[in-house]
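TOPIC: backbone geometry
CONTENTS: sequence, structure tokens:
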Amino acid sequence: MTGSALMDVCDGCARRSWLVARLAGHLEKRRGERDTVREVLGLSDARLIEALGGLLAGEIAAEHAAMDPAELRACWTAAGSHAMCRHAAGYPLRLLELPDAPAVLHLRGEPERIAALLAAPLVAIVGARKASDEGRETARSLGRGLSAAGVTVVSGMALGIDAAAHDGAVDAGANSLAVLACGPEIAYPRSRRALHGRLVGTGGVLSELPPGTPPFKWAFPARNRIIAALAELVILVEAAERSGSLITADIAIGLGRDVGAVPGSPLSWRCSGTNQLLRDGATVIRDAVDALDGITGLAVGVASLAGAGVAGPTGPRPAPTGLEPRLLRLLEAVEHGSEAVDDLAADAAEVRTVLGDLTELELLGLVRRGPGGRYTRVSR
């Protein structure tokens, strides 16, 4: 996508993008019917209006016919967004495998950079919003390792696993794209505004919904089809039995994409969905090396990770140079299995000192406090 393609959208696709946003509230009424929403999104403009417009169908059809595509494109540009339609040269070919492929992709970020990220191998990392500390750290490590290897990490910027995967990718070089369920300029959830800004500045943000469109519940599973179609490999890190992430996995399987999952405790409700996928034949993903091995024809691997300074993604994060000896001794004790404060303190009088030192190590990102006040070493 070159500078001349910053708004590469034909008139028909511009009207279609407007129409999907115009009917977003009507689609919300159908959000409980996942397949129905997908089927409706695959209809022609006229049939889409007929299916969703109800008593307003005639009015919406008149608005659609009168809509000026040039005015739409000018509004999108004024909002600071770029766009390309499914007839543009830069449109991802993988999305065209969807029967309900988005007519327009609205973008925030440097277009040339987004084009490069879309041309690289893409891996999706998705999972639970209510993720565990261990799950978030696993997603962060996967994102970091894959980004360092030149892989584009795709996710939905949601709380929990999605955001952690983006964070890791940004930390390692910002090879990351977020697919949103609202206009591309809207940071959703609001608590991820900083991450949204980092992705716009160093990666990219995509949406099929034009600028100004608020998030709708139907749009979350709908955006999952984009994530699944873009990726060569979809990895799930913690997903309950009825997790929305399983929708992404189902779509990926239907498109012939590879699906992997991080194994979890059989006693954890957060891992019931991922463990089910593994039982059904999904690839076991323990770290970024496993993910790289799962990408067909990818000319990167462990050597590229080491060259990027991300050796052994599952190893412990190295202690910073100059760490005080007492903190280094405490860190080594945690790494060797002393997880509880009682194990780390010589006596009751030393507990407060040890807690203070553990807090300092936690702020440095070297240890993590888990359930029951037990501490574990943070991996890369």
Summary: The chain has a mean pLDDT of 88. The longest strand covers residues 122-127. The CA atoms of residues 292 and 298 lie 7 Å apart.
